[in-house]
Structures are given as structure tokens and as C-alpha cells.
Amino acid sequence: MPVLVASDLDRTLIYSAAALALTMPDARAPRLLCVEVHESRPLSYMTETAAQLLTDLGDAAVFVPTTTRTRKQYQRINLPGPEPAYAICANGGHLLVDGATDHDWHARVLARLADECAPLEEIREHLMRTADPVWVRKHRVAEDLFAYLVVERELLPEDWVKELAAWAENRGWTVSLQGRKIYAVPKPLTKSAAVREVARRTGAELTLAAGDSLLDADLLLAADRGWRPGHGELAETQWTAPAITALPERGVLAGERITREFLRAARGGTTAGQAR
Predict the structure, then answer these.
(1) What is the pLDDT of residues 26-45, one digit of tens each?
(2) What does R_g of the chain's alpha carbons equal in angstroms?
């Protein structure tokens, strides 16, 4: 039976220049491969070693990129290795099969959102009303499914995100702060639901996962084995679970470690989290 590997992308497998966390002397820094260009500029990277590991992983498992990015944002990423047959975008709102949206899946997601949580417009109006233009750079809606703000972190009031999270909780929504972005996402909109659907279609009996943010917690809990890097929301709150390995590596080297752990586990190798 195939092994399914579902991984978050940003700050898990791929990293912006600001998120690389290259703390070693320059001469010892790893060689990097650019995997995303936006507006003619390089945007996201992984180490060359991680790129080779991901290529090998594509031959050993069903690799499923699993991201909160919109489809358009995902499609500008050029990952090494075989083209994934499945990809999950918009935090589970869209399931791509051979690059095309599965409309039946999307319709099922929309029906569940309508039944279980407050409408997007209510959330959006609250954000517009309460977020201060002094520290908000952009208001955005993604795929008509969820909203997010791009903010100046140094100006963001310490308690504002907590207050927003408490307000959203009562309306069936989750709030996540990731870098300069504050996400408001419906609770039923989950990566784990879409991953379970891919596992059903592929017949996978073992699911491996990795992620760094609060929006990845349900994905990690749904997997048989999971890894989180030493940075991000989950690390900051020391979040863990029985089948989850908390890695010490931070930044792009955490992405390399995660791909190595995926490949080992997919090949039935050493125990998850065991030292290299």
C-alpha cells in the first residue's frame, strides 16, 4: 500500500529569505535552490540537499503539498521531483487532481461551511472595523473561503490577536498569526479533511505530515506520524502530541530535516525523530 506524505509548504518545506534563519558563518551556509519566483523576483527557497531528498520522496511515496495558499499562489511554486498528482490548497478548500480543481470536493466544503460557521462577510466586516490602519498593510480574502491581514508586526498590539481569536471562536472560526499575516479561517475548513480524502482515493495505509502553524495542528493529529520544526506557532506554544516529533532545527535546515525524516519513514527506515 502507498505511503501518503502531506506537508505544509511555507516555513515547513520552503522558506522566504526572511525565514531562512541562516545563523552559521557565511562560508558554512547551505547551497540554496530557488523554488518560487513572484513578480520576476526570487521568493522561496529550500536547500539543495532538501531538493534532492524531495525528489527521492516523490518516487517513494504519494507526496501531497498541503497549503493555506490560494491555487494561484501555489501554482507559482516549482518544487523539485515528480509533479504531485494531488495538492491541497486554501487550507483544504480546494483539492487539485493533476493540477485541476475537484469541483465535487469544493462543493462539499462549501456546504459544510454554510452549515457550521458564521459567514465570511461577518468576519470580514469585523476585521475592517477593528483592525487599525496604522498597523494593517493589506486586507485580503482568499478564494472566497477565508480572510487574512498583512500587518506590521512591530506595531501590532499584543492583545489584539487574542481578542480576535476569542471573538472568532464563538462564530466557528480559528485565528492564526504567521509571520506578518493574521488568518481568520472557518473551523470546518481543514487540511486534515482533504488529506483523508486523498488517503481514501489512493488507498494509503500510512500518512506522514509536517507543519509549523496552528492551522497545521489538525493535519498533524490526523497523521500516523508527524514532525514540526523548531520555529512557528506550534513551537512557540510547545504544542505536541503522542505521534509528533518536535525537531530542534529552525529555518531552512528544518525543512531539510523534515524531508529526510519523510523519506526515512516512507522507506520504512529508522524511528521518527531518531538522530541522523
Answers:
(1) 999 999 999 999 999 999 99
(2) 18
